[in-house]
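Re: beginner question about structure tokens

> Can someone show what the tokenized structure looks like for a real chain? I only ever see the sequence side.

Sure, here's an example I had lying around. Input first:
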Amino acid sequence: VHLVESGGGMVQPGGSLRLSCAASGFTFSRYHMSWVRRAPGKGPEWVSTIDTGGSDRYYAHSVKGRFTISRDNAKNTLYLQMNSLKPEDTALYYCAAKWGTSEGYSDSGDYDYWGQGTQVTVSS
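And the corresponding structure tokens:
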């Protein structure tokens, strides 16, 4: 099983980034998918979850209205469009897969599969 995140980088406040997570080794379309982030010196924070079919999406209050989660089950890929980025969005962003529930968790131990992360830095 592999979850490989990409698309991170450095961006100025107010800018945008699109993260991708390529999945392999499991039936992607049967898993609810999430993004979780860890800021420097802080614990993990759940960001967003999308259900298996992509119709139900959930967001943390801190990103609602700025971030959009989506998925392409034909390409086994998860996305996170991040707009109006703020310095407090600086973190390592992970994608994670969960069987059976679209509830969002912040701890890697609560997921079935977890990626290696991609760094997002928002700074002027």
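Each token stands for a local structural state, so reading them left to right follows the chain. The longest strand covers residues 17-24.
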